[in-house]
Structures are given as C-alpha cells and as structure tokens.
Amino acid sequence: xxxxxxxxxxxxxxxxxxxxxxxxxxxxxxxxxxxxxxxxxxxxxxxxxxxxxxxxxxxxxxxxxxxxxxxxxxxxxxxxxxxxxxxxxxxxxxxxxxxxxxxxxxxxxxxxxxxxxxxxxxxxxxxxxxxxxxxxxxxxxxxxxxxxxxxxxxxxxxxxxxxxxxxxxxxxxxxxxxxxxxxxxxxxxxxxxxxxxxxxxxxxxxxxxxxxxxxxxxxxxxxxxxxxxxxxxxxxxxxxxxxxxxxxxxxxxxxxxxxxxxxxxxxxxxxxxxxxxxxxxxxxxxxxxxxxxxxxxxxxxxxxxxxxxxxxxxxxxxxxxxxxxxxxxxxxxxxxxxxxxxxxxxxxxxxxxxxxxxxxxxxxxxxxxxxxxxxxxxxxxxxxxxxxxxx
Length: 391
What we know:
This protein is α/β, with parallel strands linked by helices. It has 2 domains: 5-233, Thiolase/Chalcone synthase (Peroxisomal Thiolase, Chain A, domain 1, 3-Layer(aba) Sandwich), CATH 3.40.47.10; 241-389, Thiolase/Chalcone synthase (Peroxisomal Thiolase, Chain A, domain 1, 3-Layer(aba) Sandwich), CATH 3.40.47.10. The protein contains 12 helices and 15 strands. It starts with a strand and ends with a strand.
C-alpha cells in the first residue's frame, strides 16, 4: 500500500492567511463573515479583505485588470502549500484544481458595461473559462506534467483531493498539488438568493432555526506526496489521506435526498478504503451549510452511518461562509490542523441545536484525535467524504 502523505497546506479565507492563523481563529471562535455593501445591497458574506492589487503583490505577480480574483486567491494559497518545495521536471508533479466561479468576476464587468450602454472589453473573458484559472496558477508555480480542473459544485476541491490521492496510490505520480479556489461574484450571490436559501443574517449551521447560508470566498491546497517523494523533497509528513469516496444520489438538481443516501454511501465507502470502523473517527468536519435541506439530510446520513457512536462534529462555515468549490480544500486544511493540534472545532452561531446529540460541539475542545472525516456535498447530490489520519 502506497501512503498518501500531506506535506504542505495553504489557505486564505475571510479569516486571513495561513493554516496556523486559521487554526487560532477557529479555536477562539472568531468569524470572518461580515456585513458589507455590494452593488447597493447589504449582505453577510465571508469576503477576503484584500483588493486584487494587494493579492497580486502578496502572490509576487504583476497586477493586471485581466487576472481573475479566483486565480489570485488560488495562487496565494498554493504558494503557502508548496513552501520551499521545488517543482521541476526531475520529479514529475500533477496539479488538480477545483473551481466553479472561474473568472466570472471579470466577465460580469463586461456585461455590466454592456447593460449601461458603455464600451465593453471582450478581453475580460480571457479567464472566464475554469481551466484558464487553473493554468494561471500552474504557470506561476512551476513545472507540472499533468494539470486538471474539476467542477462538481461544492464538492469540487474534495474531489480534486480524492483524484490526487488516487494518482499517488496508483503510482502514476509521486507528488500532487490539490485543492480549490472560488471568489465571490454577483452570479452566485443572486443565484442562491433566487433559491431562497441565502441568510440575510449570520448563518446558523445545525441550528433548529437556521434560515440558509452565507457565501464566502477563498482558496486552499494540500501538497500530497508518496514516501519516495518525501525522501527527495525532505518534507515532513503532517497527516495522511487514508480514505476517500464520491457517491451521487441524483435526488434533485440543487439538493440531496432527505435521508442523505449519497452522503451515507460516501462516508461508508471512505471508511472501507481507510479500513476504519465508524467508532474510530474522532471528529467530523461536516458540510453544514445552514440550509434546511443540507443540515437535516447530513444529520440523517451521519446518524445512519455512526448510529449511537456519532463522533464530535461541527460546521466551520459559520466562520468562513460557504466558499463553494474551495470549501472541501479549506476544510481539509482545517482537518489537518485538527490532527496536528488535537482540537475539534466548535459550531458557530448556534443557539438552539437541531439535534439532541451531544456530539454537536458548541465550543472547540482539546482531545486526542487520530482520524478526522471531512464531508463536502454538492448540487445534484454529488457527495464526497475524505478521511485524514495522523502520520
């Protein structure tokens, strides 16, 4: 069995930059969601408090009106994940990126100008395509032999991690950078409002009186390496990816089945691949968006899989907002930090728990953690579960 080692991680969200900073913020119960104005509207969202000019400077690239915010957020997080690891042709590497927004923040500028009868610059479409954002990140990082883009809604980055783990375990690659990135844009904000699941107040995942989600933006990546790659890079194992699975219940275009059938099957299959019993999971970083459908469906699925042995669980989206395609990678970084620091995070903004189970954490707790499960569930019932274990 080839080990899939996590040797690097990087993250940027409304909470700030760096994995260690995020852990401290989450442990302290700090939220990055704020009330801000966008196009004459006020809303709660997890907005990264850097302009594109500032992001470009932090990334070490020249600012351009034609570089998407999605790509800049991704590049910043990816640089942290790689740290001092050199990517070149001597040791072929792969890059798998999850995104759903792509360069819509730029193409929206074109349509806005058109709608006002103003000159519109067609060059703004240069990064509209999802793959263009992946290519931008890759070209600014190093030499990748294989590059791929995954777009499966909110499970995109989790599926990128799963594919990267499979590439390493199959022996096709020894080193894979995996994760995802998405920026806030008008299209997604208005889209979720049209579904009537955007909370006008701070979101309350797993609360009995939850009203919906708050969107966020951000990016996160993990550097995955085989044992052979670690010997060459000299990197330290931070955690191992031991389980992964994707299932789809195809129940509805924008929701999962009430019983969470796809989620159940994903969690069960991930446990089987990791060769773990349900009772061996110490903490679940739940998808927990704050919508009526997701939280009730996910609760039903977890109770079906774990029964009376439901481990401590919580949602961290009350701190970051729902970062869509990036969420699976962001929460994967949180899961790795949970293992490293021995801490299970508390659920944010909860006043009346939607379950009587004491497993739903209201505050962060310090404990011995050997295995963490991280769930990411997307539109169409695309359900992915990952398991991270101590080295």
